[in-house]
Amino acid sequence: MKKIALIGLSALLLLGLGMLVPMVNSAEKEAAYPTRPVSTIVAYPAGGETDIGARILAGIAEKDLGQSIIVINKGGAGGQLGWTELARQKPDGYNIGFIGLPSINTVILDAERKATFGIDSFVPIINQVVDPVCMYVKPESPYKSFKDLIEDAKKRPSTITVSTTGILSVEHLAVLLLQDAAKVKFRIVHFDGSSQIQTALLGGQIDVGVDNVGGGWTSRVAAGQIRSLILMDKERSKFYASTPTTLEMGLPRVLMSSSRGLVGPKGIPEPIVKKLQTVFKKAMENPEHVAKMDKAGLAIKVMVGEDYDKYIKDLHETTKGLMELARKVD
C-alpha cells in the first residue's frame, strides 16, 4: 500500500515538474528576447512614406534592441496582403509590422474585401507618425486661398477635379468629409500614389491634389513648385507654418490624417511588448530619428500601449461613420 502511495506521489511530482518546465522555459525566452533578428512587415512597396519611416526607425532602434531589424515590404491590395500575413505570424515578438490608419480600418469594415483579420487581431506597440491630409495646387492656380476654391466649387458643382490615392483611401474619405461639411461637390479622380498625383497636378490633369503632408510634397512646396492650400487638422504643420487649417476656416469636423505605427500579432507576451515599446520610444526620441523624419516631411507623434490602443479603436468607430457617408455618396 505504501509502495502504491509512493508511486502516486512520484507521479504527481513529475506531473508538476512537467508543467513547471514549460513555464520556466517561456520566462527564460521572454527575458532573453531577442536572440535573433526581428522582421518588420511594411504592407506597402518600398519608397513610400510608411517604408521611409520604418527604415529610419529600424536603423536606430536595432542598436538598443541588440539584434537587426529587417524591413520586409509586402505590398498589395491597399495594405491588405501585408496585414493578412502579419496577423498569421507566431506571436513571439520576432514578426511585427506597421499598420496605416484609417486604411486598415476601411479594409476591415469593407465587407467586399473579406479581410481575415479584425482590429483585435493585433496588439498595439507604438505609433510613429500622424500625417495630416493637405490640399495642394500649382503656383499659378486661380485658387489663391481655400476660400477661393470653395466659392468656385459652389458655382461649378462636379467640375473641379481633385485627387485621391484610391477608393476609400484616407484622401478619398477626406474629400467626402469636406464635400459634406462645405456643401460642395468635386469631380474625384483616383490615383495609385503620391508620385502620380504630383505628376498629374504639375501637368495640369487635375486642379487640386489631395494627399498627406509627407510623400515628397514638402520638398516641392519648399521649392515653390506647388502651394499648400489647406491642412485638415486642428493645428498648423511645422512643415507648412503659413497654411491655415480646416478648424481655422470654420470646418471643425473636417479633420483627417494618416497615422502609422507598429503592432504585432495578438498574443505576444507582455514582457516582450514592453521591451519593444521601450526600445522604439527611445529610438523615436533620438535626435537622429527626429532630424531624418523632419527631412522626409513626416510628423512624429508617439503613442504607446493603451493610448495607442484607444486611438486605434476610436478611429475605427469614426471610420464606420465615414464609410456610411461614402456609401451614401456612391
Radius of gyration: 24 Å
Number of strands: 10
Q: What amount of the residues lies in strands?
A: 15-25%
The CA-CA distance between the termini, in Å, is 81 Å
Task: Explain briefly what this protein structure is.
The protein is α/β, with parallel strands linked by helices.
Description:
The termini are far apart. By secondary structure, the chain is α/β, with parallel strands linked by helices. The longest helix is centred in the N-terminal third of the chain and has 31 residues, at 2-32. Helix 2 links the parallel strand 1 (38-42) and strand 2 (69-73). It has helices at residues 2-32, 49-65, 80-87, 103-109, 146-155, 170-182, 194-202, 217-222, 270-284, 287-296, 305-329, and strands at residues 38-42, 69-73, 95-101, 122-137, 161-164, 187-190, 209-212, 227-231, 257-265, 300-304. The relative contact order is 0.17. It has two domains: 37-129 and 258-329, 3-Layer(aba) Sandwich (D-Maltodextrin-Binding Protein, domain 2); 132-231, Periplasmic binding protein-like II (D-Maltodextrin-Binding Protein, domain 2).
Keyphrases for this structure?
single chain, 330 residues, alpha/beta, D-Maltodextrin-Binding Protein, domain 2, 2 domains, eight-stranded mixed sheet, two-stranded parallel sheet, 11 helices, 10 strands, 46% helix, 19% strand
